[in-house]
């Protein structure tokens, strides 16, 4: 079968097209004929080697890239009773979706409703599950509160804005260009602003009469985290769920005290997807929100096997707005 693999870490040039044997299922796995794979920042991080030492995401070389996809079950392992060949499924945080067939632990796969197409599923599950747990289980925001969503035109950012607004929360949003701020506005953000070298924190203090927001969703990391502290109210929560600009590696916990006894967390999706019921419940919520048009996840770009380098470059160069998928069954 065709697969896109990495055999060393590095830039887009390490992406290799390979002919490899199709996977066999282990006892607890299913094998899926992949229709579409999601293309994500996490694929870029994987390619760069950010998970080389991770125990949460034990991705090791050589590795077939892609950790989100949708397609039809073709084989099930001897211990799998929840799925059968022919089932329509999607999954995330199991690597190997940039390929014609993928082996997926059954506990990470979800059943698709008939009205959710494969491309929509492959565009929705990873960021949808992430925004879902961040909002409902980490932030636990409720109507009348205020939050800040950084990189609000990013895939998770867009969902956080939409879900927070649906929960009755006042949303401040940031972006790197007026065009990206306009995206956040269109999705419902009450205030959208440029990072402006950290001055977003001053603007938020002013708009909240000096109080600050209850929760900050910060996926940017090094470039914003300390100013995120300044934008947060006393005893508020800063959720650093990504590090697209690099990791903060010199933080003294005393800074949290000085910033108003803040809470800082660095959560990971894997720790919020630990049983099949939770995985399916999150997916069902996302698919229902899509079907009722409470959230929108438009597909911005569709790539073929020969265009993956271009897709990764778009993400790294911050040119992408919206979700990209890789068409496999073409
Ligand atoms: N913790 C978790 O559970 C979890 C789960 C899923 C993903 N993540 C992480 O969350 C982050 C966002 O994921 P996503 O899928 O929403 O990504 P995305 O759609 O590619 O959006 C990333 C956004 O980050 C902003 N950005 C700021 N500095 C950047 C830089 N130096 N290079 C590139 N982009 C930069 C860009 O918006 P502006 O140009 O407006 O700044 C960009 O649109 C990633 O780090 C991903 O690995 C974490």
TrEMBL record:
Q: Which GO terms describe its molecular function?
A: mRNA 3'-UTR AU-rich region binding; NADPH binding; quinone reductase (NADPH) activity
Chain ranges of the Enoyl reductase (ER) domain: 10-326
EC number(s) on file: 1.6.5.5
Sorted alphabetically, which SUPFAM superfamilies does this protein's record hold? GroES-like, NAD(P)-binding Rossmann-fold domains
| SMART domains assigned | PKS_ER
| UniProt keywords, alphabetically | NADP, Oxidoreductase, Plasmid
GO CC terms on record? cytosol
Report the enzyme's class at the first EC level: oxidoreductase
Fetch the Pfam families from UniProt.
ADH_N, ADH_zinc_N
Please state what the protein is called.
Quinone oxidoreductase Qor
Look up and give the organism this protein is from.
Answer: Cupriavidus necator (strain ATCC 43291 / DSM 13513 / CCUG 52238 / LMG 8453 / N-1)
Mind giving the lineage of the organism this protein is from? Answer: Bacteria, Pseudomonadati, Pseudomonadota, Betaproteobacteria, Burkholderiales
């Amino acid at each position: 079968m065709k697969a896109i693999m990495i055999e060393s870490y590095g830039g887009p040039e390490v992406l290799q097209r390979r002919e490899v044997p199709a996977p066999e299922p282990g006892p607890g796995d299913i094998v899926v004929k992949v229709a579409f794979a999601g293309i994500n920042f996490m694929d870029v991080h994987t390619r760069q080697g950010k998970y080389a030492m991770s125990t949460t995401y034990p991705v090791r070389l050589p590795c077939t890239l892609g950790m989100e996809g949708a397609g039809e079950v073709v084989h099930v392992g001897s211990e799998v009773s929840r799925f059968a060949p022919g089932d329509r499924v999607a999954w995330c945080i199991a690597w190997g979706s940039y390929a014609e067939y993928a082996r997926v632990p059954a506990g990470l796969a979800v059943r698709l409703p008939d009205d959710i197409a494969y491309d929509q599923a492959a565009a929705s599950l990873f960021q949808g599950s992430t925004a879902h747990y961040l909002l409902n289980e980490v932030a636990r925001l409720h109507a009348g509160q205020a939050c800040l969503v950084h990189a609000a035109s990013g895939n998770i950012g867009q969902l956080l804005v939409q879900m927070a607004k649906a929960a009755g929360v006042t949303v401040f949003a940031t972006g790197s260009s007026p065009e990206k701020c306009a995206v956040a506005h269109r999705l419902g953000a009450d205030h959208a602003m440029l990072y402006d070298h950290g001055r977003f924190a001053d603007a938020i203090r002013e708009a909240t009469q000096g109080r600050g927001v209850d929760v900050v969703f910060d996926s940017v990391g090094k470039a914003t985290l300390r100013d995120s502290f300044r934008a947060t109210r006393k005893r508020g929560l800063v959720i650093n769920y990504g590090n697209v600009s690099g990791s903060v590696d010199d933080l003294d916990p005393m800074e949290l005290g000085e910033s108003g006894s803040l809470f800082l967390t660095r959560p990971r999706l894997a720790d919020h997807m630990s049983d099949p019921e939770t995985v399916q419940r999150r997916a069902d919520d996302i698919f229902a929100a899509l079907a009722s048009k409470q959230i929108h996840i438009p597909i911005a770009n569709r790539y073929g096997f020969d265009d993956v380098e271009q897709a990764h470059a778009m993400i790294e160069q911050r040119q992408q707005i919206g979700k990209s998928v890789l068409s496999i069954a073409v």
